[in-house]
Amino acid sequence: MNLILLTRNDVDDAGLARVRDPRRLAHLRQVHRARQGDVMTLGLENGPLGRGQLVSLTDDEACFDVSGLDQAPPAALPVHLVLALPRPRMLARSIEHATALGVKRITLLHSRRVEKSYWQSPELDPAKIHQHLVLGLEQARDTALPVVNTARGFRPFVEDRLPSLLEGRRGLLAHPGMANACPRGLTEPVTLLVGPEGGFIEWEVEQMLAAGCEGIHLGERILRVETAVTALLSRLF
Amino acid sequence: MNLILLTRNDVDDAGLARVRDPRRLAHLRQVHRARQGDVMTLGLENGPLGRGQLVSLTDDEACFDVSGLDQAPPAALPVHLVLALPRPRMLARSIEHATALGVKRITLLHSRRVEKSYWQSPELDPAKIHQHLVLGLEQARDTALPVVNTARGFRPFVEDRLPSLLEGRRGLLAHPGMANACPRGLTEPVTLLVGPEGGFIEWEVEQMLAAGCEGIHLGERILRVETAVTALLSRLF
């Protein structure tokens, strides 16, 4: 944790935030070796960040002074990431990488080569997803919580949701063998679509290109989803 | 495995390669659902790759015809990666990411904020490192095995080895707060130095800059080592 992320619910009227959950308390003690009086980097979920004092620390509560938080979080990436649902452990890491890199909108998509059992994984539980988002924010010293939703049918996604995701945004479909190399250093809004292990099937590629996406590739190497997501985001922006 | 990687030792004089280790045999059966007669993507370690037939498959041996392999592996990245030794699980993943992206030379470096216990990890066993290199090659359809070595003292590394690593190569030190943003789309040879969790200490940064490295940063977000390595390589090349 490069930042202690606090929620509005943690904060009382006097500008004090009380942390009581075991994960953050254990991390404060073991990694930060925090002691009463320490000044640490704190952030309010979807709010400002800055330096604040650990006013008190007991066995079951850490109390922070958050009255002085006045910095804006780092800039977000102008991207909506549409990711074919990866297998559970890959999903967790991909969400953490993408969040740390500044992605604020993620849609998890079904496609032919996504194993149906992945949709039953406990990793898709909103509380688990929230946990990975928080880890990504704490890593990158960010406070703006990404929004994650799902699209459990490929055809309804392409027909009903993709057109609005492409309004005012450049749609980029990352897929091996596409004609153009991944562009670099973009500043415009992008909707980035990334396939599953094994890739989108030909029909799916055709549907997304027909909807207005441009096909892009990262070269002849085939990358794991989590490597590809980080490599694409880092090269695009 | 997007490629079955075979060693020279696997190959006999008749151009047949025999695979007997349980990992590859299990993967052939369970993931590839391989059957006698199948034509698959094969590669010879540090040699060519291409399509070849699975001539026979028994409980304890798969035999491939490698006489037709005639393609060169994908281009390597012109980079020597010097990585402060990450904690063991992060090391394994960082090596796989870097190998899949095309890095061919990796030096694992000690620095002040590397926990000394990491040097005792079984993950540093050459056989374990080799395993992660092979996984990275199989993922990316590459055959050229990276060379990994260690530098267990920071000062001897900077004084004795870094100068020759910078001969004819641009030295780039990735560190938060450096003056210049990470450059994009380089084609010249680079030596890229990446610090541990918590970063290089100020004295170490000064030593590397004095040796001729340029400091670069990836923005105000603090990334995990494995995310940073992929993000740097993807943006640089």
TrEMBL record, chains A, B:
It catalyses: uridine(1498) in 16S rRNA + S-adenosyl-L-methionine = N(3)-methyluridine(1498) in 16S rRNA + S-adenosyl-L-homocysteine + H(+). Its main location: cytoplasm. Its EC number is 2.1.1.193. Gene3D superfamilies: 3.40.1280.10. It is an enzyme of class 2 (transferase). SUPFAM superfamilies: alpha/beta knot. It is found in: Cytoplasm. InterPro entries: Alpha/beta_knot_MTases (IPR029028), RsmE (IPR006700), RsmE_MTase_dom (IPR046886), tRNA_m1G_MTases_N (IPR029026). The keyword Nucleotidyltransferase does not apply. Residues 76-236 form the Ribosomal RNA small subunit methyltransferase E methyltransferase domain. Keywords: Cytoplasm, Methyltransferase, rRNA processing, S-adenosyl-L-methionine, Transferase. It comes from the Bacteria. Belongs to the RNA methyltransferase RsmE family. Specifically methylates the N3 position of the uracil ring of uridine 1498 (m3U1498) in 16S rRNA. Acts on the fully assembled 30S ribosomal subunit. This is Ribosomal RNA small subunit methyltransferase E.
